[in-house]
Amino acid sequence: xxxxxxxxxxxxxxxxxxxxxxxxxxxxxxxxxxxxxxxxxxxxxxxxxxxxxxxxxxxxxxxxxxxxxxxxxxxxxxxxxxxxxxxxxxxxxxxxxxxxxxxxxxxxxxxxxxxxxxxxxxxxxxxxxxxxxxxxxxxxxxxxxxxx
Length: 148
Prior knowledge:
Thiol Ester Dehydrase, Chain A; 45% strand; single chain; alpha+beta; globular
């Protein structure tokens, strides 16, 4: 399978509305890379307060969307029995840069890549685009832990 819709992503991630940010995962290369699609809408939960009259998607939510995309890529690629009853937690964010404001209504494309893994710890990098314009980029680490 080369793509996942929102319902299939829900099977992999514990996130639910309004915190499930990614709508689709496409161009999946197992345990290597994918592109997440996030439809940034004018009625999103953060729009009224960030900033009234001139809404901008918060940078921290771009980082969260990167993390969700990486978690879905990893969960989709590993054996389900390995992933059942587990959660993926963000461990660190490095080199996050916000180059242009993400203004609702747009389609944010998050191109992510797994750089390396060691046991339950994974390192990723990603670039966020609206059309051909780079909006943000970051590197981050995450770990897979048991649900409690």
